[in-house]
Amino acid sequence: MEIDLVKEKQEILKRYRRLLKAARKTKSDIDKKMIRKAFDVALEAHKDMRRKSGEPYIYHPIAVAEIVADEIGLGTTSIVCALLHDTVEDTYITLEDIEEMFGKKVAVIIDGLTKISGVVDNSDPNYSIQAENFRKIMLTLSDDARVILVKLADRLHNMRTMEHMARHKQLKIAYETLFIYAPLAHRLGLNAIKSELENLAFSYTEPDLYNEINQKLIDNQKKLNRYINKFSLPLINELTDRGFDFDIKGRPKSIYSIARKMKTKNVPFEEVYDIFAIRIILNATEENEKGACWGAYAVITDLYKPRPDRLRDWISTPKANGYEALHTTVMGQDGRWVEIQIRSKRMDEIAEKGLAAHWKYKSKGSSDSKLEDWISKIRSTLEHSEDNTLDFIDDLKLNLFIDEIFIFTPNGEMITLPKGSTVLDFAYEIHSNIGDHCIGAKANHQLVPLNYVLNTGEQLDILTSSKQMPKEEWVDIVKTAKAKNAIKNSLKRIKKKLSDEGKIKFQNIIDGLQIIEDSELIVDLLHYFNLPSTSDFYYRVALKKIDKYLIKDFLEKRTDIKEQQKLAAESSDYKFEKGEVLLLGKNYKGPKYSLSKCCNPIPGDEVFGFVTAKDGIKIHTTNCPNAMHLQANFAFRSIKAKWETIEENQFLTGIKFKGTDDLGLLNKILLVISKQEKVNIKSVYFDAEFGIFEGTIMLYVNNTNQLDKLKEKLLVIDGIHEIKRVDTNVYSEED
Ligand code: MN
């Protein structure tokens, strides 16, 4: 494409004149000659350079200078520095040249700007560089705050014109903007710039959500305007009647802040959008402005009922960044809460343009020194953390980021998460597949578990294993709705898949045992294993928690169980003598009884019998949770019982233990059990997670004595913290 140089020259001059116009509006003494000189130097230095878009490079410094004048309100020195900000870094011009032509002050600022830009462009993804970066910016801020203000203008213009860049570069710059520049603008009270930076960055980091919210805002605009008018009209009338001179604005929430609220509070767009603010800007002299604000407050709260807990008085004590205003929340029409911000024109200018506006008013005689306080606070923080950059960012992040943390991937990409997020949240944020197979991570090269709570600035390398599967308890580990939903979906999918596999497995087992499946088989199995549904049963078969041996056990006992049930049914006619005690054991002569599955009584336990309608007499332990209910409601159906003989057949029971994970632990446990006389292991199940070791061992014992002795011996083992008898059927504990 041919470039029309004459036309371009005209355009450059047009833009330059627009800059001068903005400069004159700042009301500070503008040195036109100096600005012209800077413009000429920059124009010549950048003359052969073009931006990615193909435009002459000089458009950029002119635009930055215009932002500096128009949107931040700074004067000649800053405008000059903005025009020259890229010359030393990108052209033949040296710092000495600058000092010679524009003096020491300008040279110091340009030096600061060049240094920051050198660090910012570093593509090394290392976290410590990010931190160092941040610290350098702060250091320059304490030299001359104009460095940071010009830098913010530079970043703002770059963000506004980023569409021609490669996607990965856009992302890097956008994340850095969210991480460093937007919070910085906020701290300096540059609210308009802060909002724009956030929105622009967000449109690159999450374009889909950005567009979605943007569209919803457009769709709802008319409805909102109607409401704002309805709400404002009585206010306008009343304030005008009382002689107030004011402007009123309905303030729309920014796309970024809507998205942030939706995410951190996990609420839909409509709920966030519903809250909006009305701003009343009073024309009053500096002497009368406080009185005017409170006067307007009185009028407003006469009309609309205020929420007493929501009055914020930043007039008597301004915020650290210089913000002054009166905020109140009142009940508007249709029961909607509306925030009202009341401030004078001077306060409004400070709120929008921050720092610079602050200086301007300050030079007119205000003695406010909040800015100096702030800068000196930063300086002392810097001085006290010379040796450790990471400590420094830790100190600052407390003030800068309240609800969000920023975590880096190994490639240096930044991920934003709500505070309190864990390794698992991060894994699911990247991809549900990574989340599903996550086994832990390296945080700044240290091995950390799944539930490790992340800290801002950490670089996280997720570790995965193809064998890993999502677990129910993961839902409690994660903080974000995204991760929670992903885990639940995966669990459902896995359970369904396993249950299908289990069905096939079960058929194979049945075929292998040469059993012909009858209509009651599944029902009896569910009853035996105490499971609510067939899919639960198949699921356990797939996990091998119910295997062919357990099924064989069941089949062997099935005839007995059936027989017992039949006899028990007959026994319900049996008449008990008052005060009769069932003497359980070898010589038992009463109606058929069975040991209840819920508490698995063994000889030695304190027990009682309960006459059931269908299953005959069931023996429960007296501390069985079911028994308490039975005793309380059906006392007339319970019979005293005790064990007549204690050395007898072996009974199935179990112990459950918890300890700290150690590879040798299970072996030590098994060794102790195998040495114990007359105790036989039936099955072993254990699981280690987050360094915690949990297991269940089912055992055949003769009586409680043996079990108590065993428990004592096991507790002595190093690493074991807790041993419990398993009273319920171990296979039904999962759900
Ligand atoms: Mn630049």
Provide an overview of this structure.
By secondary structure, this protein is an alpha+beta fold. Helices cover 53% and strands 15% of the residues. It contains 29 helices and 19 strands. Strand 8 and strand 9 form a beta hairpin. The longest helix is centred in the N-terminal third of the chain and has 35 residues, at 207-241. It is elongated and about 115 Å long. The chain starts with a helix and ends in a 9-residue tail after the last strand. The relative contact order is 0.05. The model is unreliable at 119-128, 363-371, 381-402 and 729-735 (pLDDT under 50).
Provide a concise account of the structure shown:
The chain contains 29 helices and 19 strands.
